[in-house]
Amino acid sequence: MAKENLVKIAQLSCGSEYSGIQKEIETAAAMVDAEIIFPEITIDDVKAVEESFGLQVASPDLKLMMARAQALVDGKTNADAVLIATCFRCAEAALVRNEMRRYIHENSKFPVISYSFTERTTAATLLTRLEALTTTARRRSLLAREHQEGLTAGIDSGSTTTKAVIMQDDKVIGTGWVPTVKVMESATEALNNAMKEAGITRDEIQALGVTGYGRFLIGDEFKADLIQEEITVNSKGAVYLAGHQKGQATVIDIGGMDNKAISVQDGIPGMFTMGGICAGASGRFLEMTSKRLGVDITELGALAVKGMQEHVEMNSYCIVFGIQSLVNSLAKGSVPEDVAAAACYSVVEQVFEQQLQEVEVKEPLIMVGGSSLIEGIPKAMHDLLNIEVTVPPYAQYIGAVGAALLASGFINK
Amino acid sequence: MVKVFIYPSNSLILSDLVDRFGHEPLAMMQEIGKKIRTAGLDSPPINITPEDPKLGLKYAAVEVPSGVRGRMSLLGPLLEEAEAGIIVREPDIAFGCMGCARTNELINFLVRAKKVPLLELDYPNTEDEAKIFVHKIREFLDGLSGAQSGKGDE
Question: Please, is A214 exposed, middle or buried when counting C-beta atoms within 10 Å of its C-beta (0-12, 13-18, 19+)?
Fold first, then answer.
């Protein structure tokens, strides 16, 4: 990656040193040309913070965290973005983490990410998150782009599928979607398919943007103008395709390997979470369900909307034992429609329980990614949250569209 | 000389009192010091590695937050060595700050469960209380010497 201007990330945390992961945080920050800083405060600030903030906690490190948050909001620290991190499974820290995130979001312009870590958290786990955080802090002008101009291409090299689009003057004129096998070959094939549909050749493309897991590899090979993580790109693509570029929105992408829940303001990610611990909450679970039901993944959604998830007893969220519950239900005589509905509901319920608590859910809720086309998924989300769920056109190409849109800012540069 | 576990475990004042009255304080500083002085790729200043919370599994199960287990990897061995303990209740942050309340609950329990001579006292808020505080600690530590010499006499 080219060297970019330094972004100062204020770290508000409890337990990162004693979990042995402080080095991982700093390594990930260095990879995105960022520096971790700790807001300066006095011991009196720490002693006073419980009363001034109104949240009483037993752990002094959490008081320290709150005092640092106040110093940030009060403008006493020169920072560009905020990372809030506490130990996974600590209830007291989770309360403070959530309230600090909300407090900073409501009282300042800092982009914020919150994360709960274990000793197994690595720099690689944090990289995409910090990349998105620094992009939001660094590239506000790029993210302000609302129209796609010229002839541009976007490639989303995902863990399961590789998507490509060709866009011209705010219209998608070609698409390509192939399973990800070998990253470069799949990206080439997807791009070729999109170019063929658009009736253009490679040298006509004025700018190329890439995203997804394989972005660094294909970005280097294709000499992409923009190499960008999925959080920024998907947020931008979602509000663009949903025609909701101004104001608040929530973007949810249930991917093949991880899920993203992003709270967006004017197309720019404010708070976001990326879940990637449990496959039971991913598109992979839906794939396995459709295989077990003997239907194509594209047919699962239509089945699900006809079913009642309440008719199937799901004993586990786990991808192995959850599937076992579905199999047991089939053995007891459940109909495939109910099983498909239960599978969709299980995935959505996990996203709700594990991720949507970490972001403010603001309407409209825009669902994107291939899983959003499985009709049972947006329906389950609607049932659970009782709000309207929008699935924009080309939702499955969201990353590629976002990349092509943002890449048009690089034409003639 | 008796090995005395102190709480807060990073209290310089408490550590100094134990030392002055002839015993060996078991304090966090010495463990952190070892980490810093031990040559390694990551040290200093990254002197705790992701391996440490795994060592803490000896004292707290895997569902306990990693920060607690990382702290226990330092404090647990000290607790094992302890022949006596002093716990100061509700200490001021400036007296010694133990960042994590869950770790504090666990180590206070483990010291009590060890059934070694233990002094528990409140943090003083006035000068008079401070004098009584130091006096009680001295009395406790002197008693430890007596107990130890008594043992020797047997």
Answer: buried
